[in-house]
Each structure stands twice: as structure tokens, then as C-alpha cells.
Specification:
alpha/beta; Rossmann fold; 19 helices; 474 residues; 9-stranded mixed β-sheet
């Protein structure tokens, strides 16, 4: 089976969050199952690739009422071929956050079929991810000037976070993508604007999201961000597939970042990791350590955690906070660190080595997310024998068993977090706690099973696609 995966980021070359992690791991897992995989992503100025991709030439892209040029660089890794699209759109300091983001990724979307054709790669199925590439199924159905073999190819869209949708002017998007005007009344149209994610929902052959619980949640107004009705409407072609974890990178038995490695059968090294971290950051190693490793954002419920800090300290926890994000939350953390210097340590920013060390050192990890499509931090924590204390939402529900491999609380407020933290503190360092750690560390979150579910979905799509009656404008 030949699979083209398109994504705005792919680890280790580019990453801002979980999307990069998923598209970094899934292709290699599919390759191990015998698939031929091409991943297409932008060639950012900040691309982390040594040696850099091999430049093989330019392609001509139909775009913005005319044509433009983009370059292609390729490399191979782990049995997967990667193609990076070079254009001035991506020669910037950050991956996202610009006023012309929608236009930039419309151009990238239009480039994907041309790049694949230039590489002589005609896929059986195209897998797109989030709003940045969600317009490709629409282009495959109705776009002019597609390479031979690409019109009407089956596609699958994975929604990693419905909060981000790619909204812009409807007429501009039709013009940029060189699409017929009749599509004004299609799924592209959402309350008078173009909505890239909704277009993908409507035109993709199948839609997945990154956990079964999140698939149920986004059909409701609370979690659907005004697309809940669309998700309900496409229920017959929509499912949740739980993400996996790269267990080669996240493995306490072989992790090069740890002062001492350990395993489920030889757990003593975890205590030394805690001792080292606490001494370096002037925390009392005798107290249980509750960590937060997170993007500092409202979605992640970091404000809930910060409001709960006095109560958590009163329960007997020490705290370690690692992350970056909203300036107001960063300032709040600095203030708390100054107020409780012997009980709360923090690092504002992202430090890969430190993150590994905190996962290994902490007794518990707080994840008070308001919503969490899948989440990787709870899987990492459990693999490192650090029990998650998490809001019962999304993939957190699908991966944590309450009072068996972690602790769940229902209400997204400080009182809910404090209730679960109090319960965890009561068990801490007891025989029950140690048994929970063993069960958590024994969980299999590898990509092998997740990749098999994707493979089965691809196969089902290809088996059924010739029998489907797909209307012209949906």
C-alpha cells in the first residue's frame, strides 16, 4: 500500500506540539508493516535536518489565479521518504502565527500533488492532518490542473485539535486554490467564511480524530467549537483512533538524559533521579513531587493548577513546573516561584533533556486540561512510573484507569484537581502506590497497535471506495 501523509510539521524536523509527534512516528510504524510512505511537509527556515534535505528541483503550482514555483528537498529516514516544500512562505522564525497563515498553507496544499508527481509517487490513499492540509480532499475532488492519477484519490483527514480551523475569506480561498465558484455552497462555507477544517470533514473519504473519547466529545457544543453539528452529520465516516507513543525516545531503560536508568523490574533508579532533580532545584526530596510539563495555555488548564498551588502545598506536595506559552501564565509562575522558593521550582521555556529528567523524577504529573484530544504526557509519565492526576476528558480517559494507573477528576476547576491530588497523596509511597506504578509502566502505548488500526482503516477505505456514491457538492 502506498500512502502519502501531508502535515504542516513532522518530528524531528519541525514541531510545535502533538501533531509533529504523531506524524513523526506513524509513518515509520506503517513502513514496518510493509507500506510505502511519502511524507510531505514545508521546508521551514528552522528545519532541523542534518544533513539537510537533498535539493532535487522545482515544481510548478497552480495558485492564486496563476502559477508559482516551489522547490523540493528529500531525505530518507527509518524506511520513510520525506519531501520538503521550499518557498519564501516558510522562511520565517515560527511555523505559525502570521496573518497570512491560511494563504501560506493553501499554497502548500496545492503543492502536495505536484511534489508527489515530481517524485513519481502515486499514492493509493492520501492522509492529511489538521486544518493546514485539510483542503487537499476538496482540491482532489474539484481542483483544476492536478497531475494524472490524482483527481478523486481517496483521502483520510485526522483532526488533532478542533480548536484550530483555518478560517478566512471565502472568495479569496476559492481564488487561491483555483476552485469552481459552485463550491461557495459546499462544506467549505461556514457562517459566511471559508473554513478549511470543515471542508476537510466534508470532502475527505474518512475522518478520524486522535482518541475515541474525543471523537464523542467534539460532537457536542462544549467541545466542538461550532463544528459539532458537522461532526454529527458525518458520523457515518468518522471514528477515533488513539495515538501511540514513540517508545524508543521515551524509555527509562535507555534514556540518555537520565542520571540513572531504570525499569519496571528494576525501579530503584527512579528514586535517584528524584534525588538529583530535587537537590539541583533546592526541593526537599522527602516530600512527594508533583510535576507539570505543559504548554502554558488555557486549554491545558494551567490556570487551574496555579490557583490550586496553595492547596497542593498544604496537602504536602512539592511542585515542579516546566513549560512556556501565555505571558500572563509565565508571570504567574515566576511570582509563585518567588513566593514559595523551597516548595515550588520552575523552568520557563522548553528543554528536552530537562523534560525527560522531570518525567523520571516526579512522583505524579498534573494534567488539568479543559480538553485533551489525546495527550502524550500521560503516556510518557506512566512509562516513567509517574502517576498522572488528570481531568477526565478526551484521550486522558482512554489511557488512564482511575485508581489503577492514575487518578481522574471530573470538574475543570481547582477543587476537582485538589480532590484527586489529595487522593493520590494518601496513597503515595504505599504498597498500593507501588503496585499502581508497576501497572502503569507495563502499559503498551507503542505505535504498533495504532498503526495497525490506521492500516485497517486505509484498507477498508480502499475496499469500499469504488462502491460509494459520492455526490458532486457536499
Amino acid at each position: 500500500m502506498r500512502i502519502l501523509l501531508a502535515s504542516s510539521e513532522v518530528y524531528p524536523f519541525s514541531k510545535t506540539g502533538g501533531l509533529g509527534d504523531v506524524v513523526g512516528a506513524l509513518p515509520e510504524a506503517l513502513a514496518k508493516q510493509g507500506c510505502e510512505v511519502l511524507v510531505v511537509s514545508p521546508w521551514y527556515r528552522t528545519l532541523k535536518a542534518l544533513p539537510p534535505p537533498l535539493w532535487i528541483g522545482d515544481v510548478t503550482i497552480p495558485f492564486d489565479g496563476n502559477y508559482c514555483q516551489a522547490g523540493i528537498g528529500t531525505l530518507e529516514r527509518g524506511g520513510v521518504r520525506y519531501a520538503f516544500v521550499g518557498h519564501s512562505d516558510f522562511q520565517r522564525d515560527d511555523l505559525y502565527g502570521y496573518d497570512d497563515d491560511l494563504k501560506r498553507f493553501c499554497r502548500f496544499t496545492r503543492a502536495i500533488p505536484q511534489v508527489a508527481a515530481r517524485l513519481d509517487f502515486l499514492p493509493d490513499i492520501i492522509h492529511v492532518n489538521d486544518w493546514q492540509t485539510a483542503l487537499l480532499p476538496l482540491v482532489l475532488e474539484h481542483g483544476w490542473h492536478l497531475p494524472e492519477g490524482f483527481p478523486g484519490l481517496p483521502s483520510i483527514l485526522t483532526v488533532h485539535n478542533v480548536q484550530y480551523q483555518g478560517v478566512g475569506d471565502l472568495e479569496e480561498v476559492l481564488y487561491w486554490l483555483r476552485l469552481p465558484g459552485a463550491l461557495r455552497e459546499s462544506y467549505l462555507h461556514h457562517f459566511g467564511s471559508a473554513n478549511a477544517l470543515q471542508a476537510g470533514l466534508g470532502f475527505a473519504t474518512w475522518v478520524t480524530t486522535v482518541s475515541p473519547t474525543y471523537a464523542r466529545e467534539i460532537k457536542t457544543p462544549e467541545f466542538g467549537y461550532q463544528l459539532d453539528g458537522t461532526f454529527r452529520h458525518i458520523s457515518n465516516k468518522f471514528s477515533g483512533i488513539l495515538n501511540g507513543l514513540d517508545t524508543n525516545i521515551w524509555n527509562p531503560e535507555s534514556d540518555p538524559h537520565l542520571p540513572r536508568r531504570y525499569s519496571v523490574n528494576n525501579p530503584e533508579g527512579k528514586r535517584e533521579n528524584k534525588r538529583t532533580l530535587c537537590r539541583h532545584h533546592h526541593l526537599d526530596e522527602r516530600l512527594p513531587l508533583l510535576a507539570v510539563i505543559s504548554r502554558l495555555a488555557e486549554q491545558k488548564g494551567v490556570d487551574i493548577l496555579l490557583e490550586a498551588v496553595p492547596g497542593l502545598l498544604a496537602q504536602g506536595w512539592n511542585l515542579f513546573l516546566l513549560g512556556s506559552g501565555e505571558a500572563s501564565l509565565e508571570r504567574w509562575i515566576h511570582e509563585l516561584s518567588a513566593t514559595y522558593p523551597e516548595r515550588l521550582a520552575s523552568f520557563i521555556g522548553f528543554d528536552e533533556e530537562l523534560a525527560h529528567q522531570v518525567y523520571a523524577a516526579a512522583d505524579a504529573l498534573a494534567i488539568p486540561s479543559r480538553f485533551e484530544p489525546c495527550g502524550l504526557s500521560q503516556m510518557i509519565a506512566m512509562r516513567y512510573g509517574t502517576l498522572p492526576i488528570a481531568r477526565a476528558t478526551g484521550g486522558l480517559v482512554d489511557t488512564i484507569e482511575h485508581q489503577d494507573t492514575g487518578f481522574l477528576f471530573l470538574h475543570p476547576n481547582p477543587e476537582g484537581l485538589l480532590w484527586a491530588a489529595s487522593l493520590a497523596h494518601r496513597y503515595c509511597d504505599s504498597p498500593t502506590w507501588k503496585a499502581m506504578i508497576r501497572r502503569a509502566m507495563a502499559r503498551d502505548f507503542s505505535w504498533e497497535s495504532a498503526a495497525r488500526r490506521y492500516y485497517d482503516r486505509y484498507h477498508a477505505i480502499l475496499t469500499a471506495v469504488d462502491e460509494r456514491d459520492i455526490p458532486l457538492y457536499r
